[in-house]
UniProtKB/TrEMBL annotation:
Lineage: Bacteria, Pseudomonadati, Bacteroidota, Cytophagia, Cytophagales
Domain of life (superkingdom): Bacteria
SMART domains listed in its UniProt record: HATPase_c (SM00387)
Gene3D superfamilies from the UniProt entry: 3.30.230.80, 3.40.50.11260, Heat shock protein 90, C-terminal domain, Histidine kinase-like ATPase, C-terminal domain
InterPro entries for the chain: HATPase_C_sf (IPR036890), HATPase_dom (IPR003594), Heat_shock_protein_90_CS (IPR019805), HSP90_C (IPR037196), Hsp90_fam (IPR001404), Hsp90_N (IPR020575), Ribosomal_Su5_D2-typ_SF (IPR020568)
Record keywords, A-Z: ATP-binding, Chaperone, Cytoplasm, Nucleotide-binding, Stress response
Descriptive protein name: Chaperone protein HtpG
UniProt family annotation: Belongs to the heat shock protein 90 family.
Protein's organism: Marivirga atlantica
């Protein structure tokens, strides 16, 4: 048996679902109603511009009012208005969008681009907070009669001839008992500031006091007056042409967005109309050496209506540290305009933002290298993170990613630095070795040893540098990264050079046994090496591979999380050519011999910040005794 038919959707069944589940957050009802008022206002402006409306536009501000006594909230516009027939068409038919119809009708004439509405559902959000909703409207059509529509939240309505005298519409919400928070001025103002702060039509809510001067000169007197409080900025900076703006304009707008933040380093003005529409301003904030990814700093708008601050799909992950706004009507939103939906445009916008950021940074580097270097401590984190996250960004950024030399206190690009050190820091396998420090104060002894050897040391101390170092080794040809305290200086760069040990094999084994006994530590691998007599008598290091894996495990990633829980295995290198080694071997008293070895061992621990508790107390006491 075969049968075809039409699926029935009954309004009495679907209407309660729309009211209750369409929006996850009830406060958005005000965003939806104000957006509708904005659309009505934009429509009348468009018709006036086309000459299809001959009347005087007059005051086109949108007004929000609260009547706590009557428990009503009013949204009033002076826009296009509706006849009784239009109310039946656009309000009584769920999901029929008058905004979409208007855009389709006038798009060939270049009007309607600023219209917000799309799905024809926003009005019904009013019933989430209201027991009853009224619409009082007067159409812009000449000779039209005012209309008055009333609905108590059921599928039944009544519509009568109204009494409205001015063009436009007034939506009146009779707030229900559970939603009386929306009768509080502070709450309403909070919602308007969140969602409507940059809508393109002035929105008035209440009054504000303003001091003016009357008269001139000495006779001038100050007077306080009340005037309508326009709570929004209808022409935010991102809607303007970059050519018309100065640096101060961008800084002032940043203060408007983030009143308590430090001045930004610089910014990028996005202004694209093909193959998608995208405007916005992204600011680079000052970040000290901390990975503070605050994912609520970039705000997403659609035609100046705030949508969300969850922009992880639109903005690349590594740029979530940026601040600012993005506005695009081409980003697909769900039916309640509360969050994004997957779409090819989102990926295109993501790629475009990445490219724009890379181009901006490259331009800054080329035009003002000194200024770029001064900003490096704040922007280095962005750049390194981006290089690890995005191969296309890496290709551009590796040309302006900087390494800071501790020795010379200068900045080099990666290629410049490799050229700078290749003569003295190339190993037997023809790899250029980049030696780095993570804490110059604690690693000073190792840095000093490296400098004596003619090696240069760069500073890599950000929270993500353990991952950044691994990436560089994978990306750069014939390049090796070594932390300055990863080994004794003679072994940091293997040049296949061997120094002569002054000790005999018997003395070497005896000295090893003395230090193993003094250390009494199974995690300490003791070796006797032929080093310069000027080097430290004992050096303790954590092998580069193990330390790097443990660092990465602590900061996340690396593929070996178990490394974070494994016990440390250290190398104790005893300088067999140091006078301390000879002195220990010549001492005939075993207790004194062990005490001397213990003292040298503790000094090595102290240099690595590994001596504490009772061991530190004993070291201090022993040092005092030796001075007596």
């Amino acid at each position: 048996m075969q049968e075809k038919g039409t699926i029935s959707i009954h309004s009495e069944n679907i209407f309660p679902i729309i009211k209750k589940f369409l929006y996850s957050d009830h406060e958005v009802f005000l965003r939806e109603l104000v957006s509708n008022a904005v659309d009505a206002t934009q429509k009348i402006k468009s018709l006036s511009a086309l000459g299809e409306y001959k009347g005087d536009l007059g005051n086109t501000n949108i007004e929000i009012k609260i009547n706590k006594k009557k428990k009503t909230l009013h949204v009033i516009d002076r826009g296009i208005g509706m006849t009784a027939e239009e109310i039946k068409k656009y309000i009584n038919q769920i999901a029929f969008s008058g905004a979409t119809e208007f855009v389709e009708k006038y798009k060939e004439k270049g009007e309607g681009a600023g219209i917000i509405g799309h799905f024809g559902l926003g009005f019904y959000s009013a019933f989430m907070v209201a027991d009853k909703v009224e619409i009082k409207s007067l159409s812009r059509e000449e000779g039209a009669n005012p209309a008055h529509w009333i609905c108590d939240g059921s599928t039944e309505f009544e519509i009568n001839e109204g009494e409205k005298k001015e063009r436009g519409s007034e939506v009146i919400l009779h707030i229900n008992k559970d939603s009386e928070e929306f009768l509080e001025e502070a709450r309403v103002r909070e919602i308007l500031n969140k969602y409507c702060k940059f809508l393109p039509v002035p929105i008035v809510f209440g009054e504000k006091e303003e001091t003016i001067k009357e008269g001139e000169g000495d006779d001038a007197k100050e007077k306080t007056i009340k005037k309508p409080d326009v709570i929004n900025n209808p022409e935010p900076l991102w809607t303007k042409s970059p050519a018309d703006l100065k640096d101060e304009d961008y800084k002032e707008f940043y203060k408007e967005l983030y009143p308590f933040s430090e001045e930004p380093l610089f910014w990028i003005h996005l202004n694209v109309d093909y193959p998608f529409n995208l405007t916005g301003i992204l600011y680079f904030p000052k970040i000290k050496n901390e990975l503070e990814i605050q994912k609520n700093k970039i705000q997403l708008y659609s035609r100046q209506v705030f949508i969300t601050d969850e922009v992880k799909d639109v903005v690349p992950e590594f740029l979530m540290l940026l601040h600012g706004v993005i506005d695009s009507p081409d980003i697909p939103l769900n039916v309640s305009r509360s969050y994004l939906q997957a779409d090819s445009n989102v990926k295109k916008i993501n790629n475009h933002i990445t490219k724009k950021v890379a181009d901006k940074l490259s331009d800054l580097f080329k035009k003002d290298r000194k200024g770029f270097e001064e900003k490096w401590d704040s922007i280095g984190l962005f750049i390194k993170y981006g290089m690890m996250s995005d191969d296309k960004f890496y290709d551009k950024a590796q040309k302006f990613c900087l390494l800071k030399s501790i020795n010379e206190d200068k900045y080099f690009t990666i290629d410049e630095y490799k050229e700078q050190v290749k003569t003295n820091q190339t190993d037997k396998d023809d790899n250029v070795n980049i030696i780095y420090a993570t804490n110059p104060d604690k690693q000073d002894a190792f840095i000093t040893s490296a400098e004596k050897k003619g090696y240069d040391v760069v500073l890599l101390d950000s929270p993500i540098d353990s991952h950044f170092i691994n990436m560089l080794e994978q990306k750069l040809e014939k390049t090796s990264m070594k932390r300055v305290d990863a080994d004794i200086v003679d072994k940091l760069i293997d040049k296949d050079e061997k120094a002569e040990l002054v000790l005999s094999d018997e003395e070497k084994e005896k000295l090893k046994g003395i230090f193993e006994s003094a250390a009494d530590n199974q995690s300490m691998n003791v070796t006797i090496e032929a080093l310069s007599p000027d080097e430290l008598p004992v050096t303790i290091t954590l092998p580069e591979f193990m330390r790097r894996m443990k660092d990465m495990a602590q900061t996340g990633g690396g593929g070996m999380p178990f490394m974070g829980t494994m016990p440390d295995q250290f190398n104790m290198t005893v300088n067999g050519n140091h006078s301390v080694a000879s002195k220990i071997l010549k001492e005939t008293d075993e207790n004194k011999q062990k005490a001397m070895a213990k003292q040298a061992y503790d000094l090595a621990l102290l240099s690595q910040n590994m001596l504490n508790g009772k061991d530190l107390t004993s070291f201090i006491s022993r040092s005092v005794d030796m001075m007596k």
